[in-house]
Amino acid sequence: MKVETIRLHQEPYNSFIVIHEKDHYTPWHHHPEFELVYIEKGKGRRLVGDHVSPFEKNDLIFLGPYLPHQWICDVTDTGQPGVTQNEAFVLQFLDSFLKGSLFEIPENTGLKEFLNKSRRGIEFHGKTKTRIISILDKMHDMNDTKRFYALLSIFEIMGSSDEFRLLTTPNSMNNFSSKDNEPMQKVMQFISQNFQKKIQSEDLLEISHKSYASFYSAFKKAFQMPFKDYLVNVRVGYACKWLSEGSMNISEIAYESGFENISNFNRQFKKIKGVTPSQFQKQYELELSNQL
Asked: 34 φ, ψ to 5°?
């Protein structure tokens, strides 16, 4: 459950990495590179820092350096041996790739601000998502020079867009940047992978190697909220993704997100989001129709 550092192989004559991942993706890990992940095929659960959400085809995420993440793919049987069920196009580059006069000019202020925000993880939507995916689809067949200019085109889109949402909570990076917080890192991953079930205190104490009192005190200090509130926030965040997809009814979403009954789901959702799940869904549909 430790946050592993996993680096992709980079050729010495390339300034950034492009890789086509298939089937099982890498485990819970981080790395010093910025990373753009485009899901071309498959679905499952996405873990980014303290954020958890379902993902499917055309999921487009941008991650800043050292932000732990993992894509857990659903296992499906196509009945066709050798058929790839999960595919992702991954693009990585180091911060040093952006150093120099080109990226220090005033015209690139928007990109620099965007890259700073990416340390919390970014999910694209709307026309921005469509435009970036269109470029990534074409990059498969490009040579290195054309890929470089395609990446610059993506930078231009990122630096001028507001069609994205931040994934992790503002204070979550503090829990990943310090080795002293490794027990909380382990707890965070455990919650991300088990929030749909009833989480027992005994499991949390075993993972963190703390007593009951010291664990809950340390958790509140690290995350600026009690454990129960944090868990509810994770479950509500997961529910928001399903509500925006519209593929399940609200009762199904409540149980899928770890709530034991619909009334508690409605109450907790409104407490955090200010609206009921059905109102949230209607607002999302309205915003979506206005973008078309």
From this structure: -70, 150
Average pLDDT for the chain: 83
- HEC string for 261-278: CHHHHHHHHHHHHCCCHH
Tell me the pLDDT tens digit for each residue of 50-68.
788 888 899 999 999 888 8
Q: Buried b / exposed e across 250-277, counting CB within 10 Å, b at 16+? A: beebbeebbbeeeeebbebbeeebeeeb
d(CA 43, CA 77): 13
Taking a C-beta distance cutoff of 8 angstroms, is the pair 23, 78 a contact? no
At residue 175, the pLDDT reads 54
Query: What CATH code would you report for 181-291?
Result: 1.10.10.60
Question: Which CATH fold topology does 4-166 show?
Answer: Jelly Rolls (2.60.120)
Residue labelled with tokens 């020079």 = 145
